[in-house]
C-alpha cells in the first residue's frame, strides 16, 4: 500500500518533520487530526459548490418557463418559427436542469456523504482508540507513582510491595499492547484516508464528466433542428435584402437617423453651412474669439495641454443638445478647455479641413516648393 510521505504527514499535523519521530503515537495522533481537518475543508468547499449549482437549478425553471411563454406569445402573432426556436431552448433548459438535479444528488451521495462517513466512522474510531490509550497510560502512571511511594516507605510490607509491582507490570503490559494497537489503527486510518479522499475526488470528476457528456449528447441531438432554423434564417435574410422597396425604406430610415444624430461634432462643413448660413461654423469662430480674448497665444502649450475631460465632455454634450455655442459662463483660465473643444471638433469632421480629395494635390505643391528652394 502506498503511504503518505513523512513530509505530507508533518505538514498536515503542523509539526516540524526534523523534530518529529513518526513512530511516536502522539505525533501520529496529531497527523490524524490534520487529516480530519483537511477532510472537513473539502466537505465545506464541495458543499459551497453544491449550493452554487443549486442556485442555478432554481433559476433554470424560471428561464425555461419565460422562454416557453414567450414562444406561445409569438405563435399567437403568427411567428411559428421563432416560437418553435424559443420552445427548443426552453425544453433544453428543462432537460439539462433535470440532469443538474441528478448531478447534485450524486455529489451529495457519492462525495459529501462518503467523506462525512469516513470522518464520523474511521477517523472517529481511531480517535476513540487514542482516548482508550490515554486512559491506560493514566492508569499505568498512577500505578507507577504508587509503587515509587511504597518503595520509599519503610512501613510497606513485602507482600504489599510485590502486589504493587505485579499490578504495575500488568498495567504496563496492557498499556504497551493498547499503544501498539492504537498506533497501528491511527497509521492505517491515515492510509485509508488517502485512498478514500482520492476516490471521492475521482468520483467528483466523474460526476461532472457524465453530466457534461449528457449535455453534449442532448445538444448534438438538436443539431438537425438548429440547422433547419439557420436555413430558415438565411432564406428570410436573403428575401428581405432582395426586396428593393424594403431596402429603400431601410436606407431612408438610416439617413434620417444619421441626420438626427449629426449636431455639431461629427457634422460635415456642408451640413453646418446649410444649418447656420455662415461660411465659418459658429463653433470654430466662438472658440477662436474666446482664445483671442484671453491672449491664449501667450499660454504655453495651449494646443498641447488638454483641458479637463469632465468640462470638455460637459460642453460638448451641451453644444450638441442645444445646437448652439455659448462659452459665456466659462472662466478665462479654462482656455485649455476651449482649445480641446476646438481640437475635438476638428477631429470629428467627416472630411478634414484639407479634404482627402485634395491630399495628393497638396503633396504636389509641397514638392514643387521644395524643388525651387534647393
Regions with little confidence, pLDDT below 50 for 5+ residues: 1-22, 252-262
**What structural class do helix, strand and pairing data support?**
mainly alpha
Note the main sheet.
none
H-E order: HHHHHHHHHH
In whole angstroms, the N-to-C terminal distance is 93 Å
> What percent of residues adopt helix (DSSP H or I)?
over 70%
Q: Count the strands?
A: 0
Taken from the alpha-carbon principal axes, the silhouette is elongated
Give the number of helices: 10
Beta strand %: under 5%
Radius of gyration, in angstroms, nearest whole number: 43 Å
Mean pLDDT over all positions: 77
Explain this structure.
This protein is mainly alpha-helical and 374 residues long. The protein is 80% helix and 0% strand. It is built from 10 helices and no strands. Helix 3 packs antiparallel against helix 4 and helix 8 crosses helix 9. The chain starts with 5 loop residues before the first helix and ends with a helix.
Outline of the structure:
Helices cover 80% and strands 0% of the residues. By secondary structure, it is an all-alpha fold.
What key phrases describe this protein's structure?
80% helix; 374 residues; disordered N terminus; mainly alpha; 10 helices
Amino acid at each position: 500500500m502506498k503511504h503518505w510521505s513523512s513530509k505530507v504527514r508533518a505538514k498536515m499535523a503542523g509539526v516540524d518533520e526534523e523534530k518529529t519521530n513518526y513512530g511516536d503515537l502522539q505525533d501520529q495522533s496529531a497527523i490524524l487530526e490534520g487529516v480530519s481537518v483537511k477532510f472537513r475543508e473539502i466537505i465545506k468547499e464541495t458543499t459551497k459548490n453544491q449550493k452554487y449549482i443549486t442556485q442555478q437549478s432554481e433559476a433554470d425553471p424560471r428561464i425555461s418557463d419565460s422562454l416557453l411563454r414567450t414562444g406561445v406569445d409569438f405563435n399567437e402573432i403568427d411567428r411559428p418559427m421563432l416560437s418553435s426556436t424559443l420552445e427548443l431552448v426552453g425544453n433544453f433548459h428543462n432537460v439539462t436542469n433535470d440532469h443538474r438535479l441528478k448531478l447534485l444528488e450524486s455529489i451529495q451521495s457519492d462525495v459529501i456523504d462518503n467523506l462525512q462517513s469516513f470522518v464520523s466512522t474511521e477517523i472517529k474510531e481511531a480517535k476513540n482508540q487514542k482516548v482508550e490509550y490515554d486512559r491506560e497510560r493514566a492508569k499505568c502512571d498512577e500505578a507507577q507513582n504508587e509503587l515509587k511511594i511504597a518503595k520509599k516507605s519503610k512501613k510497606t510490607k513485602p507482600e504489599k510491595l510485590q502486589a504493587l509491582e505485579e499490578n504495575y507490570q500488568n498495567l504496563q503490559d496492557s498499556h504497551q499492547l493498547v499503544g501498539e494497537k492504537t498506533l497501528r489503527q491511527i497509521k492505517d486510518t491515515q492510509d485509508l484516508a488517502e485512498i478514500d479522499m482520492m476516490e471521492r475526488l475521482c468520483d467528483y470528476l466523474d460526476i461532472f464528466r457524465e453530466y457534461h457528456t449528457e449535455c453534449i449528447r442532448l445538444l448534438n441531438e438538436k443539431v438537425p433542428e438548429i440547422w433547419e432554423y439557420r436555413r430558415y434564417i438565411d432564406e428570410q435574410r436573403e428575401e428581405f435584402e432582395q426586396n428593393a422597396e424594403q431596402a429603400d425604406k431601410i436606407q431612408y430610415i438610416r439617413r434620417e437617423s444619421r441626420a438626427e444624430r449629426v449636431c455639431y461634432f461629427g457634422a460635415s462643413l456642408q451640413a453646418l453651412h446649410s444649418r447656420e448660413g455662415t461660411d465659418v461654423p459658429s463653433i470654430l469662430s466662438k472658440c477662436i474669439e474666446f482664445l483671442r480674448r484671453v491672449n491664449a497665444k501667450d499660454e504655453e502649450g495651449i494646443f498641447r495641454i488638454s483641458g479637463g475631460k469632465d468640462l470638455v465632455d460637459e460642453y460638448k454634450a451641451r453644444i450638441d443638445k442645444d445646437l448652439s455655442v455659448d462659452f459665456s459662463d466659462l472662466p478665462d483660465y479654462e482656455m485649455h478647455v476651449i482649445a480641446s473643444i476646438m481640437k475635438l471638433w476638428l477631429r470629428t469632421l467627416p472630411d478634414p479641413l484639407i479634404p482627402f480629395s485634395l491630399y495628393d494635390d497638396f503633396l504636389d505643391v509641397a514638392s514643387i516648393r521644395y524643388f525651387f528652394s534647393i
